[in-house]
Amino acid sequence: MKDFESVLTKVPYNDIFDNPEYRKQLYQEYKAVTIKDFDASLQSYLKQKLSPEEQKMYEDENREPKNGYYFQAAIEKKMTDLAKEFKELDPIPQEYAVKDIKQTPTYKSLAGIQSLLLKYQDLALHDIDASDKADKYMTNIKDMMEHFTNSFKLDLIDRILNTDNYNTAIFFHKKFNPQDNPYEYKKRWEQLKISLNARLIEYKTELLEDIQNPTIIYDGLAKGLNQYVETTDKVISYIIQNQELPSNNTKQLWKNTFASAIIFCDMTGLAVSQWNKCFRFKNNRILKDSHRSKSNGDGGTYKVPEIQKIFEKYLK
Fold this sequence. Notes:
mainly alpha; three-stranded mixed sheet; 3 strands; flat
């Protein structure tokens, strides 16, 4: 049971298993698993091989090179050596073995549901009508819930919707009127669909507004870069934040040198290939990684120190 408790946190929506009934159901599934969790088993091995003092010293997140520094270094070396020893154990001895909770039907369903919900949210990023995909995701989510009890389904939907699970009336109704739970589940399922679709529409609206009216993060940067590029604060802010050109915008004209463009890339984290999708030179030349050698400047026309100072002012 101890190893079960140590891996329970890996399960999506694991706070649901504060309910003893659900916890017991998952534990029965866990006992039937035969595949071992290598990483969890390694941690079990290390804990049994280290003294409590050694474990505390190694797990201390605020270690500093002062008191006990050499002892800490010795512990880290011991941990590395123990990990190497453990990798040579085949099969994993029973006293260290921890089962892989990801093999349980409940984990697989919950992980699948969580993944589909994330994909559902990502539909807002698509330019096309995503209603067909949204319906398909909802059908898949419903199928993954099928092996759960109706009470579990209700609690899971509440968890997804972030509703108040501690509402006393709802709690006692679930507990003492389980015969009603199938009907409650149908109602709650419809609530989930409506809520997710509303969120999808709301998020798509927000994204559209952000694209059409990008937030100005670097107010005044366009003016500061005037000798380098023809742009606006909205567009340059969007490029720096999203590493791409806002839709319905043409490439911004870069009026300066290859070297200054490379400095722009380095200061903003923009790849050279991304830069070429956002900016253009007047003669339609292409920026290349090979231009990086010129970005060090030679005291000539590149004005590297100046553009660095401009970015240091805004990109803090």
